[in-house]
UniProtKB/TrEMBL annotation:
One of its GO terms (cellular component) is cytoplasm. Gene3D superfamilies: 3.40.50.1360. It catalyses: alpha-D-glucosamine 6-phosphate + H2O = beta-D-fructose 6-phosphate + NH4(+). Transmembrane segments: none annotated. This is Glucosamine-6-phosphate deaminase. The active site is at D67, N135, H137, E142. Coiled coil: none annotated. It is an enzyme of class 3 (hydrolase). Residues 13-226 form the Glucosamine/galactosamine-6-phosphate isomerase domain. It comes from Acholeplasma brassicae. Pfam families: Glucosamine_iso. The keyword Manganese does not apply.
């Protein structure tokens, strides 16, 4: 793991977005694994700004997202489909057919998992962007998820629902389940960039980097990946040193 502690969120956003832009320019047909949550928003803003100013070309780039809520209409403002279109896809020249998100509204959710696994076979991320939950989850792989997991349906933990409640009118509106890439799918990415900001991520970051590799802290598996960069602001890194 290469750990980078930078002295502001803005500097993290600038550095990570520069890596992504360089990748897109050098790999016209590359696959970007993308994440949601508040953490990557500044990075997406920087990609949009660069696309407007420098015409960085996404016309053959493929994207694949980590996860999606189950039973939340695609057009709901907090679906990850809406989030990604609002924050990134609507503002760059990625082709709709090259955008991949799991479908949490499929009647047969097992089928939805199977078909997203198939999509992943042909669209293995060259770079996977990750955030981290306060309980150490990556994607929506909650503590206890098998390291062998592929795409699956997960029941969200109360803590995760509480953390995400700020985006919904009430706690009752926060979805209870999600469809997510499994740990195995995430580990298949060629390169992983995980970003964390703020004090409330510091314990999860500490356990991910210094703790033992355990399914109780899903992000700890990243210790076993051979190309992981972790970008932290000082508060997220505060327990490390
Ligand atoms: N499924 C997403 C994760 O991919 C994300 O990393 C996490 C942290 O979110 P935030 O960046 O808002 O702290 O939230 C959600 O649970």
């Amino acid at each position: 793991m290469k750990i980078h502690v930078l002295n502001s969120k803005e500097l993290v956003n600038k550095t990570v977005s520069e890596h992504l832009i360089k990748f897109v320019r050098e790999h016209k047909t590359g696959v970007l694994g993308l994440a949601t949550g508040s953490t990557p928003i500044g990075i997406y803003e920087a990609l949009v700004k660069d696309h407007k100013e420098n015409n960085t070309d996404y016309s053959q780039i493929r994207t694949i997202n980590l996860d999606e809520y189950v039973n939340l209409d695609q057009n709901h403002p907090e679906s990850y489909y809406s989030f990604m279109h609002r924050n990134l896809f609507n503002h760059i020249n990625v082709k709709p057919q090259n955008i991949h998100l799991p479908n949490g509204n499929e009647k047969d959710l097992e089928m939805a998992c199977q078909s997203y696994n198939d999509v992943l076979k042909n669209n293995q991320p060259d770079i996977q962007i990750l955030g981290i939950g306060a309980n150490g989850h990556i994607g929506f792989n909650e503590p206890g998820t098998s390291f062998d997991s592929s795409v699956h349906i997960i029941e969200l933990q109360e803590q995760t629902r509480l953390d995400n409640a700020r985006f919904f009118d009430s706690m009752d509106d926060v979805p209870k389940k999600a469809i997510t890439m499994g740990i195995k799918n995430i580990m298949d990415a060629k390169r992983i960039i995980l970003i964390a900001f703020g004090e409330n991520k510091s314990e999860a970051v500490y356990q991910m980097v210094k703790g033992k590799v355990t399914e109780n802290l899903p992000a700890s598996i990243l210790q076993k990946h051979n190309n992981v960069e972790i970008y932290l602001d000082e508060s997220a890194a505060s327990k490390l040193f």
